Every structure is written in structure tokens, then in C-alpha cells.
What does this fold into?
Amino acid sequence: MNNLIEVKNLTKNYHTKEGEIEALKDINLNIQKGDIISLVGPSGCGKSTLLSLIADLDKDVFCGSVIKNDNLKIAYMLQSDALLPWLTIYENAILGLKIQNKLTKEYLDYVEYLLEFYNLKDFKDKYPKSLSGGMKQRVALIRTLALKPDLLLLDEPFSALDQQSRLLISDDVYKILKKENKTVILVTHSIEEAITFSNKVIVLSKRPAVIKSIIEINIKNNETIYERRKDINYHKYFDSIWKDLDTNES
Amino acid sequence: MSLEQKNYLKKIRLEKIKITLSQLLIIILFLLLWEFLVNLEIISAFIYSSPSRIINTIIELISNNNFFIHIYTTLKEVIISFILGISLGFIIATILYEFKLLAKIIDPFLTMLNSLPKVALGPLIIIIFGANTKSIIIMALLINLIVSIITIYNGFQNTDEYRLKLFKTMKATKIQTLLYLVIPSSYQTIISSFKLCIAQTLIGVIMGEFLVSKQGIGYLIVYGKQVFNLNLVMTGIILLAIISYILYKLIVMLEKKLLKHI
It folds into this structure.
């Protein structure tokens, strides 16, 4: 199979003054090209830790291995839009390109296209404070996509938004991810989001996190999130994820 | 524009006029009262001087070609010490931010220096550097530098952690993070440190001039005291008040220009 990333026997401990905290325990995971994988699990169970390790953000030691191609481009989207208020929307969108010295025509044209696609073209020269929360998150997404990553890591990207913007923007994001055939790992608190977004939902236990179950989502009608939510098996998936989460809590 | 909007803008303008007029009125009343009380000999003209005497002193200073040289001397010292203070403060704060261990090591010493009354070092500075402008500038630097370092460093440390993480995920280098994130997000604090620094610099320069100078407003005040010419002392104080207000206003103008979008 076409494995983009292979996580093998990954174990990670954190050290604090109060003692050692086991964050992840023996995680095994294969991510294939085109996969959209959701990670769900109780708060503080180590979902973000797993993302950090995959993205090489954590320079500390861990056991096990994350096998991937050295040239694999990984981009990250955070819970907070983290836009820089002193830069215009356009300057924010190309921030990643500027940092990675990729201000070539090819990349800049792509940013133009994305701004157009997300209806942000008229706001190019505006500053972030004049945008709504949903629009800001869209700019953050453009900033992430601009790097043309092979793998997108989304760390609870919609959780700071109100319900309405959340539905709107998650639909947008889903559309573009499908269209560009991106590989994605999504960390989320929302079971609904996990089912509607992904083809695989990974349920983690509470700390130390082990993989509780991997649920394959087979929804035929793939066009939009609204249609996916109407699938007859939706509730079946919901129940099985909920059950795995629920038993963890007790 | 709707009528309501017009009225609203009018209200804001009116309030601004009210404030400015009241401020002018306070100054005029104060000066009149001062002049009046002195003329009626309720307070002593010898000790408290009076606005008319101060104006006469200024005219006298100008006609003796003494006025601008004193202001120039003090301003020059203030500007040199200010620029040295903020640039050294900025550089040292950057070094401390990049080398956290160093920051932890020197933290108690900074605190100690910050609370030490620097004027106590005056005599020592004069002995080491001589009775000249250099001593005055060093005196001012001792006072403004620690404050600049501490304020700017705190600004750097308050950089938003999500934005720092964002830069980390983009694999930004340390220099890039500093230039594109840490420094710009501290603009506000850096400007605040300018405000603190200018006030501290004035204190330092005048203190230095009290101790060693042959020129400058501080000298004017000390000289006035020695010859018991209190008109000169009062003139010096008034000039200082005006200068410090103007310098502060300049920084506020800079602030408005730099922080338009934040």
C-alpha cells in the first residue's frame, strides 16, 4: 500500500517536576495518501502530542518510530487563527511562504486562487481586525494550504468558532480537501465532525493514550458535509464512537 | 451622512473643545493667581518668583545669548542618553530573550540594580569619568537602561503562544521568529518603554547636571540656587516642564503612527 506515514510502537512520556506523565503508549498507525483521519479522545489524552510528534515539532525523546519520506511537506493548522494583526490579509496568507523562501510565482498564484475561492479577494489589503472569526479561520486555512503540503494536520481548527461559522467553514474546508485530494489528520472534540470529515476515525483512550478502536467510515455520497450527515449509517457510526469514548470515562 | 451621525460627530468635537479650553483655562488661572498673589505680597516674590519675572528672566537670558545654549545642552544630553538607552535596552533584551538561561542567571542582579537609587553612584561616576558631559550621559543611562531592558524583555516574553507555535510549525528560524513575530508583537510595549525611558532620561540628565555641569537647564537651576536668584530656578523648572511635555508628545505621535493597525 501507499503509506505516507507509518507510526510504529510510539510511546512518549513527559517529564515535569511533579513526576513523569505517560502521554502515549504503543501507538501504531498507518496513514495512506488521500486519507482523512480523525483523532478523537477525552480532553488532554495526548492527541496534540501525537500530532506534534508526527510534525517533528517535539524535539524531545520518544520511543518507537515515525517513518516518513524526508521530503514530505507537512502543514499545521491550529485552534486559534493566530493571524498577525500588523500584517494585511494577503501578507498573513503568504507568511508561511515568506518564512520558507517560497515566494515564487507558482505559489503566489495559488494563494490568489485560494483567496478568490474563499471570497476573500476584496479583503486582501484589509487587516485581520476587520474580519469575522470564520473569515479569519479561512485566512489561516489559506496560509496553511499555500505551502501545498502533502499532509495537513488540523488541531481542533474549528473549536473556537460559533456553531454557524463552524458549519459553514467546515463545509468549505471539506470541499477543498476533497478537491485537492489532500491527506489530513484532524484532531477534534466533535464526533459529528469526525464522522462527516473522515474515512477513518481513531478513538484514543484517556492518558496514557492507546488506540481504543479504528472505525472505518464508508459513506457513498461524498460531495458535501450536509449530505454525509444524512447517510443512513451516520447514527450507527456515532453510537460506536460514543461507546468507545464513554467506557473510557468511567 | 445621517443627522444622527452628524450629531454624534459634533458631540465628540464639542467634548474635545471643552477639554482643551478647560486645560488652557487652568493654566491661565494658575498663572494669574500666581502673579496676583505675588503682587499683593501674600507670597514672597523672592522665593516664589512670578510669571512676569520668569518671562523677564527668559528675555534676559536670550539677550545674553545664554538661553538656547542651555536648552541645547540639556536636549543634546537627553537625546543621546535616550537613544543609547533604548537601543542598548533593546539589544540586551533581545539577547536575554534568546538566551533564557542567561536571563535567569542575571535576573536578581537586574532587580537589585533596578531598585538601587542610582544617584548614590553619582560621586563614583564623576571620579571615574571626570566632571564632563560623559558623566551626565552615563548617569542618565544607568537610570534609563535597566527600565528599558526590563520592559522590552517582558514585552518579548508576552508573545502569544499560539503564534509562537504557528512559527514553529512553519519551521521558522530563530531570527525569523524574532524579526517577524516577537519584535512586531512587542511594538506596543516598546513604545511604552520609550515613554518610561524619556522620563527616566530627564531625571538622569538633570541629576547629572546638578552634579557636574557648566551648562544646561540643570546647571541653571543649581547656579540660581547658589546665587539665590530664584527667578532663575523657577525659569529652569518651567523650561523643564515644557521640554518634557514636548518630548512625551513626540513619542505619543510616533505611537499613533506605528500602531495604526493594532
User: Anything to note?
Assistant: The mean pLDDT of chain A is 82. The two ends of chain A are 38 Å apart (CA to CA). Chain A has two domains: 1-72+151-163+177-250, 82-149.
